[in-house]
Amino acid sequence: xxxxxxxxxxxxxxxxxxxxxxxxxxLCQGIILTxxxxxxxIDRIIPQIQDLSLLLTSFEKTQPVWFIISGKTILxxxxxxxxxxxxxxxxxxYQQEYPVDQQRSHAYTSLIRKDKxxxxxxxxxxxxxxxxxxxxxxVSLSTLGPLLVENKLEVGDSKWEFSQxxxxxxxxxxxxxxxxxxxKEIDLGGDLLPAASLLAYAAAWAAxxxxxxxxxxxxxxxxxxxxxxxxxxxxxxxxxxxxxxxxLLGNFLLFNHYFSKKNQLEQQTLHLSSHLTRLDSLQQxxxxxxxxLEKTGWNTPSVSSFYTDQIAASLPTLILLKELTLYPQQQxxxxxxxxxxxxxxxxxxxxxxxxxxxxxxxxxxKLRAFHWIKQVTVVDYHFDTKEKKGSFxxxxxxx
Length: 399
Description:
- By secondary structure, the protein is an alpha+beta fold.
- It has 2 domains: 2-216, no CATH class; 303-398, Gyrase A, domain 2 (2-Layer Sandwich).
- The chain has helices at 52-56, 114-127, 179-183, 198-209, 218-296, 303-314, 360-369; strands spanning 2-3, 11-20, 26-36, 39-49, 64-71, 75-78, 93-99, 107-113, 130-136, 152-155, 158-163, 166-172, 185-188, 191-194, 320-326, 347-354, 373-384, 389-398.
- The strands form 5 sheets. It has a 6-stranded mixed β-sheet. It has a 4-stranded antiparallel β-sheet with strand order 15-16-18-17, with helices on one face.
- The longest helix is centred in the middle third of the chain and has 79 residues, at 218-296.
- The two termini are 108 Å apart.
- The chain crosses the membrane at residues 232-255.
- Keywords: Membrane, Transmembrane, Transmembrane helix.
């Protein structure tokens, strides 16, 4: 087998040699090559038959096929040789030129009368499907030059000479073809091939590689374009359907993902809705209580208790402290009805007894000496002459 660097897919191509024996007789044979996993192998060899239409019907219409026309009715010469036919009658001939190397240092030209080839071309028109090319003469074997082990070959009515895989000389033999000449085997890169099938193999190779020199024929060019258009549309349709299917599948997967996510979030929302409602009610209750504590003064720091202790400790021994009220309740009028109690923030109300009015002056002076007291006011003072006792009420405002 012939190993090459190819993708890991299977591809088939057919090659057909049509050997012109006389003006009305011909023989045709074919080979199908398979390319798979980097290897090219012979899939099937079709022996010689005289019915080209029968041979063509054995191939699939989509299978690439290449034709090589051979026989003594084809004239082949080097380009620098004398002309093969009168230039005035060029429209009567099919002609093909073979540059056998990249530098085009030498080339061969093959020529055949149209009236001899047209019946075969008509059969190709009717039965052939994916025609890749039609080549004239044995020079078509030049595509197999790199695969040939022998540098000199003589098969049928043709002789070839190769040098480093390049065709250097080609001759047509005008002697009878010997059976032994056709029965021998040719070594192609390790594959042994019957010599009679050599040109058919070259045709299949050209179809498989989609490269090679082919005869200029208007129908062939139009047929290749038409075949490409006819097969391009189904490929585009399939590609469009594949893209649509991928988009549809991706859309379905995304929809399924987000739909399940939506259901999950809805369940979480239902589970948390009761907690959110309770949280709102607790926040409202907390705000109402904070407002009440702020209005009543209960949220003032506990340093006020320290102030009351300092006031009580600073009083003289002759003063009898009866009541010391922190944040006293606000007095309402008789007609007013309080829904909630209200307190006077930052105030201390002190009630007590003294023996003489003069004792009130040291008390107020000591209270005013504290830096955290803003104002000291004697709200009420009453002296009982019978009891010789005085009662007082002092209002203290804190800073």
